[in-house]
Specification:
By secondary structure, the chain is α/β, with parallel strands linked by helices. The protein is built from 15 helices and 22 strands.
């Protein structure tokens, strides 16, 4: 697939890297030479210098040959103009646009006949949704929703004296705390553990299960966890304010914001909740906000250093869980050496959203793990027996690539149990994990309709 990415910043760069793993043809357009030079080091990525809103620059990027254009420059206005040019002049089949302004995000009032197929993504909304999911499952660091929220893919850190801590990875992969749960992988400092390794405290564990079973599994692995009701947010920007508005119904919400104008705006937006003017890295201010009695501290300012420092301080002062928003990947990796619980990346959140939109039609949802190139995705079994390589076959007889596994099957809107006698049926929804994104095409070929018979 030929994909043109407009914008080589944090989001565009992450997308180029991610989509390049899927063996797509990638072209990136930007006015920043330094950012383009960084991407030129990626094999298979072509770069074009220039303003993405100018037609002659889009011509150089061969937008006329593109299957998809992804507009993620730092300016909404450029993204809108470039998207309209792509649709109206070059008739690009699919256009994905990032809009940060909530006014522009309500795109209906700006739509024209050229933007009928426009797909809008908003990084701030993606981050807010992730934080809401993490609040729903305390002490997890990653939660993805699949199969129309029937299945969840969850990451947590192993704790001492609780399973799967002390098990080998091989034993964990064969452990089913519920009949439909599947443990998938274990990582230590972003490196996957081999099957013979013993799982230790703080290793990162991933599992997949029906959504209604997730809480019970987490209770078995983490013990009984107190619901997180008292939330303190550092930063009254777009993310902080919108998050507070959503949480205020069922949570006690407070915000710390140094800018008086932003603080007043946030206070006007909240029906319940308190906004404290001040510095989130100030211990006295955090104590004024009752940090020692806080279940969750969320730092979502536009400054990575403030987010890190305020989370470290909050943890020291007694906050039970901390989440830091980080735009720079090196910081995300460094957090493993700290006691900050979760690092969220807007560009990674956006890239996971775009993955589902970029993949071929037979992938409904895709989610890339925050470590490595591992992905979990869902695909539908199309065709009857003999029309593909899976229908009518037992699950354990399907020739998946190495380090790929079937985590769940949804049939007739229900997650079914999988055993050695489970047989794929037409229209089954399969949820699959791959350790390398390049494997996805090999997996999909098994599920694709073919002109040849496989009986």
């Amino acid at each position: 697939m030929n994909i043109v990415i407009l914008g080589a910043g944090a989001v565009g760069g992450t997308l180029a890297d991610t989509l390049n793993d899927h063996l797509h043809r990638i072209t990136v357009v930007d006015e920043n030479v330094t950012q383009l030079d960084r991407l030129q080091k990626l094999d298979g990525v072509r770069t074009v210098f220039g303003n993405a809103a100018e037609p002659h620059v889009l011509e150089q990027a061969n937008v006329d040959e593109a299957d998809i254009v992804v507009a993620v420059t730092g300016r909404d206005e450029i993204n809108i103009v470039a998207s309209q040019v792509a649709r109206s002049v070059y008739e690009t089949p699919k256009v994905i646009i990032r809009l940060r302004s909530q006014e522009y995000a309500r795109i209906e009032r700006y739509k024209s006949r050229y933007l009928d197929n426009l797909v809008v993504i908003n990084p701030e909304n993606e981050v807010r949704v992730q934080i809401e999911r993490l609040l729903h499952y305390p002490r997890t660091f990653e939660v993805a929703s699949l199969a129309d929220n029937r299945v969840a893919f969850v990451g947590f850190r192993a704790i001492q004296n609780m399973l799967p801590c002390g098990m080998t990875v091989d034993a964990m992969l064969n452990w089913n705390p519920t009949s439909r749960a599947r443990f998938v992988a274990a990582f230590r400092k972003f490196v996957p553990l081999d099957r013979g390794s013993e799982i230790q405290r703080k290793d990162e564990i991933y599992f997949c299960a029906p959504t209604e079973e997730v809480s019970a599994i987490l209770n078995e692995c983490l013990g009984s966890v107190k619901p997180e009701r008292k939330v303190l947010i550092a930063g009254a920007g777009r993310i902080g304010t919108s998050l507070a508005k959503v949480l205020q119904t069922n949570h006690s919400v407070r915000i710390i914001e140094p800018d008086p104008e932003h603080a007043h705006f946030a206070a006007d937006q909240l029906r319940d909740g308190i906004v404290y003017p001040g510095d989130a890295t100030d211990a006295i201010k955090q104590r004024e906000c009752e940090i020692a009695d806080t279940d969750l501290f969320v730092a979502v300012t536009n400054d990575d250093e403030i987010n890190v420092m305020s989370c470290l301080l909050a943890k020291q002062e007694g906050a039970r869980q901390t989440i830091a928003l980080l735009t720079q990947d090196p910081y995300v990796r460094l957090l493993n050496e700290t006691n900050i619980d979760v690092a969220l990346s807007p560009q990674r959140a956006t890239s996971s959203s775009v993955l589902s939109l970029v993949h071929e039609n037979n992938i409904r949802t895709a989610h890339r793990l925050r470590v490595g190139t591992c992905e979990v995705f869902e695909t539908v079994v199309r065709g009857g027996a003999g029309e593909n390589r899976v229908t009518g076959k037992k699950v354990n007889k399907v020739s998946l690539p190495q380090n790929a596994s079937i985590l769940a099957i949804v049939r007739d809107a229900r997650v079914i149990e999988i055993d050695d006698n489970t047989v794929f049926q037409e229209e089954d929804l399969a949820i699959i994990y791959v350790a390398e994104a390049a494997m996805i095409q090999k997996v999909l070929r098994l599920f694709q309709l073919s002109a040849f018979s496989f009986n």
